[in-house]
């Protein structure tokens, strides 16, 4: 199961309700359409005073629940099946210099830190040494496949 993380340009409700900033925008309902906002990239990584509002809430009669909340760039996110994954606070790297090059070099030097999918949508495949770092409880129906070796790409 893939966690759907779409691109979201924040509609100004968080700046008004959560951050207490003045805005000139408004929220428009997508009622009647099949478009559903399920993720939020926090503007400038600024966390609202009440962080729970970034995950779920209601404004002007419109309720929302985000499956993913993305933080500002810092470090790569763990796999969604990792015990360290928190869908309400997903880190991400900055795609600009020197940050991007720093992380590319890190993964070249530390291949075990890379998350590589086996391509099968119903399995999670990990080397034996990472088996205890997997949490499938949030993903019923997935099967854990463990293999011998260190998992380093060849």
Descriptive report:
The protein has helices spanning 13-18, 52-55, 99-109, and strands spanning 39-41, 56-59, 62-65, 68-73, 90-92, 123-127, 143-147. The strands form three sheets. It has a three-stranded parallel sheet with strand order 1-4-5, with no helix packed on it. It has a two-stranded antiparallel sheet with strand order 2-3. It has 154 residues and is an alpha/beta fold.
What's the topology here?
Layout: H1 13-18, E1 39-41, H2 52-55, E2 56-59, E3 62-65, E4 68-73, E5 90-92, H3 99-109, E6 123-127, E7 143-147
Parallel strand pairs: 1-4, 4-5, 6-7
Antiparallel strand pairs: 2-3
Provide keyphrases for this structure:
19% strand; 154 residues; alpha/beta; three-stranded parallel beta sheet
| Relative strand content | 15-25%
For the record, give the distance between the C-alpha atoms at the N and C termini, rounded to a whole number. 26 Å
Number of helices: 3
What is the helical fraction, as a range of percent?
Answer: 10-25%
Strand order of the largest sheet: 1-4-5
Average pLDDT taken over every residue:
76
Described by strand count, sense and barrel closure, the largest sheet is: 3 strands, parallel
Spell the H/E element sequence. Answer: HEHEEEEHEE
Structural class: alpha/beta
The global form is globular
């Amino acid at each position: 199961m893939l966690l759907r993380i779409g691109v979201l340009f924040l509609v100004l409700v968080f700046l008004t309700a959560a951050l207490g900033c003045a805005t000139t925008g408004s929220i428009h309902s997508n009622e009647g359409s099949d478009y559903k906002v399920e993720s939020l990239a926090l503007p400038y990584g600024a966390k609202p005073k009440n962080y729970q509002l970034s995950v779920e809430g209601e404004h002007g009669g419109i309720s929302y629940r985000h499956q993913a909340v993305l933080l500002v760039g810092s470090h790569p996110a763990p796999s969604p099946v990792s015990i360290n994954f928190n869908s309400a606070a997903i880190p991400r790297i900055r795609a600009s210099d020197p940050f991007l090059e720093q992380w590319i070099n890190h993964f070249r030097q530390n291949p075990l830190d890379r998350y590589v999918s086996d391509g099968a949508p119903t399995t999670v495949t990990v080397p034996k040494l990472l088996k205890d770092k997997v949490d499938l409880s949030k993903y019923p129906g997935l099967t854990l496949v463990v293999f011998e070796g260190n998992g380093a790409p060849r």
